[in-house]
């Protein structure tokens, strides 16, 4: 699975996507993941991104991207118009997560979600022993400058899926360089879930 | 005929020449048959053997066929010169660019100021009421005449964007991509209102004489005021503040409702200049065509685009209040529903509607990469443009 020069979370998502699928990447940033999916998986890709400078980078890669926010960008798509809708490292920055996730599950046959795990042991230690809001590799921001609106753990997300009758098809939890096979909620920095409804 | 290599110097096209194409008749949307029709046009670059690199550029209300380069003996470049040339967004080393003056215009194409062959006098108001679709149908004749079966792209801003949408709706099989810029599926009441004030201004000029002014003084005052109103709507509050502030032209003169403020002087200058190069009746006919246009008149846009392999790039500008971003987003919405490959960008600009002529760097970047992608017809390789 470990490909050279590819971010670990991107490598994990590549493995979750079937070849020649259609993919909608919500909050696609500079388009690195979308570009990989198209190049390596022959996917048909579309991105949505709010930052105009990131859009220019996407366009320079030859990607199709819509300028707009994720919160309102999904409503206009038909049901099941993509094989996968991806929210990688963007879910925690979305205002109405519940609405967007249910819309993503409507628009995509499957949804891939990747988010930083707030219950990572280093975060816990920082809160417990030092009494401060955690700053870690996957949550690198100070409280006053973070773009993150929601702080959730891997357990939180699993509980959310149970409550909403969302099926978790696969889950991969990763640390800095490797997958975390056990005690994930404690040792994983990032959780990546393949879900469907 | 087409394969004339233009003089190229330092990324500029150099001297370019206007050409003309005349055909017998055009069936108008109204059902009327109108002819003969002449279209003035210019081309830049070379049409390749496969005839697959042709791009049609459609101009806005006051534009013309002279999009780039300079005419012999003159030094004013075409209206989109910064975008067209070797290495530019419309790279004339790769693409064959065509731009024609619209039907109803006054810069070489048949319009109300042209001579009616039946009377030997200018048409004036005997010129038929034309539509954006008529303008595009006339362009299609020119494209056929040039031997181009499928255009690589049709690109235009404002009224040019309306023509792009008309191409998409009427000839979806004749283009591989479309770039509507700062435009709309149909005019809002606000846009119609501004155009109507312009028209009323022309018709209120005593020289207008129901359009029969060609043997005497033209309604230049009315046309100049129409242009002044236009210019206000093309700019933004911010761009005006930056350009003029409240600076006064000449404090010494006694008060006589002369142009005191810089902005007044500017508007008068633009108005007075416009009347030297534009026909008042053309202004009436063309603005009416813009107001009447509705790309969804026959069917919803998403239905027309359904199953199409055309690729679309939609561009809007943040400070454009004449053609606001929400109108471009309506086009994007139709593309989304039709599952057409689309890119949309709202460029961060303070220039207002004029931005489509002025935001060279960002707009060029978007157009250049989009065209490369369409031209090389590959999925992402990272290598394109080599």
Number of helices of chain A: 8
- Tell me, what is the CATH class of chain A? Alpha Beta
SS content category of chain B: alpha/beta
SSE class of chain A: alpha/beta
CATH topology of the largest domain in chain B: Rossmann fold
- The CATH architecture of chain A can be given as 3-Layer(aba) Sandwich
What structural keywords apply?
heterodimer, A: 197 residues, alpha/beta, Rossmann fold, 7 strands, B: 386 residues, Rna Polymerase Sigma Factor, Chain: A, 2 domains, eight-stranded mixed sheet, globular, disordered N terminus
Report on the structure:
The complex is a heterodimer of chains A (197) and B (386). The longest helix of chain A has 11 residues, at 97-107. Chain A is globular, with a radius of gyration of 16 Å. The two termini of chain A are 27 Å apart. Chain A has eight helices and seven strands. With 197 residues, chain A is of the alpha/beta class. A seven-stranded mixed β-sheet of chain A has the order 3-2-1-4-5-7-6, sandwiched between helices. In chain A, 34% of the residues lie in helices and 23% in strands. Chain A has one domain: Rossmann fold. By secondary structure, chain B is an alpha/beta fold. Chain B has two domains: 15-188 and 295-376, Alpha/Beta hydrolase fold, catalytic domain (Rossmann fold), CATH 3.40.50.1820; 191-289, Rna Polymerase Sigma Factor, Chain: A (Orthogonal Bundle), CATH 1.10.1740.110. Helices cover 34% and strands 16% of the residues of chain B. Chain B contains eleven helices and 16 strands. Chain B has helices at 132-145, 159-170, 189-204, 220-234, 237-243, 262-277, 280-292, 301-305, 325-337, 355-358, 360-376; strands at 15-16, 19-23, 26-27, 33-34, 37-44, 54-58, 70-71, 84-85, 90-91, 96-100, 115-116, 121-122, 153-157, 177-181, 311-317, 342-347. In chain B, helix 2 (159-170) links the parallel strand 13 and strand 14 (177-181). In chain B, helix 1 (132-145) packs across helix 2 (159-170) and helix 3 (189-204) runs antiparallel to helix 4 (220-234). The longest helix of chain B has 17 residues, at 360-376. Chain B starts with 14 loop residues before the first strand and ends in a 10-residue tail after the last helix. Residues 1-10 and 381-386 of chain B have low confidence and may be disordered. The interface between A and B is medium-sized, with 25 and 27 residues.
């Amino acid at each position: 699975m470990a490909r050279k020069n590819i971010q670990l979370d991107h490598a994990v998502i590549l493995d979750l996507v079937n070849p020649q699928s259609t993919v909608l990447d919500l909050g696609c940033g500079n388009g690195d993941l979308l570009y990989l999916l198209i190049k390596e998986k022959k996917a048909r890709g579309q991105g949505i991104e709010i930052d105009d400078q990131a859009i220019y980078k996407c366009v320079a890669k030859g990607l199709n991207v819509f300028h707009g926010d994720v919160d309102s960008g999904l409503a206009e798509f038909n049901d099941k118009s993509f094989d996968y809708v991806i929210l990688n490292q963007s879910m925690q920055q979305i205002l109405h997560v519940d609405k967007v996730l249910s819309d993503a599950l409507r628009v995509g046959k499957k949804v891939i979600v990747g988010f930083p795990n707030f219950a990572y042991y280093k975060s816990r230690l920082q809160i417990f022993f030092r009494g401060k809001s955690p700053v870690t590799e996957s949550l690198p921001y100070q409280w006053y400058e973070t773009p993150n609106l929601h702080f959730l753990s891997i357990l939180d997300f699993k509980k959310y899926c149970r409550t909403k009758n969302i099926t978790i098809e696969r889950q991969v939890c990763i640390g800095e360089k490797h997958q975390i096979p056990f005690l994930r909620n404690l040792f994983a920095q990032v959780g990546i879930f393949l879900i469907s409804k | 005929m087409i394969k004339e290599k233009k003089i190229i110097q330092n990324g500029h096209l150099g001297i370019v020449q206007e050409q003309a194409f005349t055909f017998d008749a055009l069936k108008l949307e109204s059902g009327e048959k109108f002819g003969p029709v002449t279209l003035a046009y210019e081309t830049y670059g070379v049409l390749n053997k496969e005839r697959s690199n042709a791009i049609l550029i459609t101009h806005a209300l006051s534009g013309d066929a002279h999009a780039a380069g300079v005419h012999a003996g003159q030094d004013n470049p075409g209206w989109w010169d910064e975008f067209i040339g070797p290495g530019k967004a419309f790279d004339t080393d790769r693409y064959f660019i065509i731009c024609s003056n619209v039907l109803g215009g006054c810069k070489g194409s048949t319009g109300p100021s042209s001579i009616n062959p039946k009377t030997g006098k200018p048409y004036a108001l005997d010129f038929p009421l034309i539509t954006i679709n008529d303008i595009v149908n006339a362009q299609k004749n020119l494209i056929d005449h040039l031997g181009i079966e499928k255009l690589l792209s049709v690109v235009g801003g404002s009224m040019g964007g309306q023509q792009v949408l008309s191409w998409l709706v009427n000839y979806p099989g004749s283009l591989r991509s479309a770039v509507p810029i700062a435009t709309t599926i149909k005019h809002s009441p606000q846009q119609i209102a501004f155009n109507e004030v312009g028209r009323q201004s022309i018709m209120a000029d005593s020289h207008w004489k129901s359009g029969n002014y060609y043997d005497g003084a033209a309604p230049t005052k009315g046309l100049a005021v129409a242009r002044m109103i236009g210019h206000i709507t093309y700019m933004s509050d911010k761009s005006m503040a930056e350009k003029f502030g409240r600076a006064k032209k000449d404090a010494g003169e006694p008060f006589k409702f002369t142009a005191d403020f810089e902005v007044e002087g500017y508007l008068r200058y633009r108005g007075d200049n416009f009347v030297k190069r534009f026909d008042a009746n053309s202004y009436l006919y063309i603005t009416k065509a813009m107001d009447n246009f509705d790309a969804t008149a026959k069917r919803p846009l998403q239905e027309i685009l359904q199953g199409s392999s055309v690729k679309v790039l939609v561009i809007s500008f943040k400070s454009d209040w004449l053609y606001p971003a929400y109108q471009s987003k309506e086009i994007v919405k139709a593309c989304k529903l039709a599952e057409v490959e689309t890119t949309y960008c709202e460029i961060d600009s303070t220039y207002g509607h004029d931005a489509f002529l002025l935001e060279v760097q960002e707009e060029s970047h978007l157009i250049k990469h989009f065209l490369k992608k369409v031209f090389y017809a590959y999925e992402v390789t990272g290598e394109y443009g080599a």
